[in-house]
Write a structure and sequence with these properties.
This protein is of the alpha+beta class and 150 residues long. 17% of the residues lie in helices and 27% in strands. It has a single domain (6-148), classed as Rossmann fold (3-Layer(aba) Sandwich), CATH 3.40.50. The strands form two sheets. Strands 1-2-4-3 form a four-stranded mixed sheet. A two-stranded antiparallel sheet has the order 5-6.
């Protein structure tokens, strides 16, 4: 199956999109072999969000400076690298969380290793598009079954 460009997919205009422990896979041989790239994926997410939509990314953290080096082998990615990629697609950081951070994680072992499985150092970003100027734009409210920005 030939990879389609992001403009070939229908526009759903979702209120939010989320990747959970998957973003690093955009930098693995399997995904790249199919012709997909993180840049195209991020662009597709950007195009499909409603005007006040949020894009949430949660993944296993790699060591500072690792970039995507450990995506294939350890299933980890450097948070700063992810932020750089999503910002290149037009998003800006709205919020970040360290609630699943684990300073004891050595960042040098596979996330499936029994000594760290389920307890890896994880990061979470919430980003929004640059053209939404209000800090409140990421807050989504529901009124009569419709999503709108306050």
């Amino acid at each position: 199956m030939k990879h389609q460009t992001s403009t070939a997919y229908p526009r759903f205009h979702c209120p939010f999109a989320r990747t959970y422990r998957f973003y690093h896979d955009l930098h693995t041989a399997l995904i790249q072999k199919k012709g997909a790239t993180a840049a195209a994926f991020n662009r597709a997410v950007y195009e499909r969000l409603k005007p006040c939509g949020s894009y949430i990314i949660i993944d296993h953290a790699a060591a500072v400076g690792a970039g995507t080096r450990d995506a294939q082998s350890l299933h980890r990615i450097e948070p700063a690298f992810v932020r750089k990629e999503v910002e290149a697609a037009g998003f800006v950081l709205d919020a970040k969380s360290t609630i699943r951070a684990n300073k004891a994680d050595p960042h040098s072992i596979k996330v499936f290793d029994p000594s760290i499985k389920g307890e890896t150092d994880r990061f979470a970003f919430s980003v929004r598009s640059r053209d939404r100027n209000s800090r409140l734009s990421s807050a989504i409210a529901v009124r009569r079954g419709e999503v709108f920005c306050p």
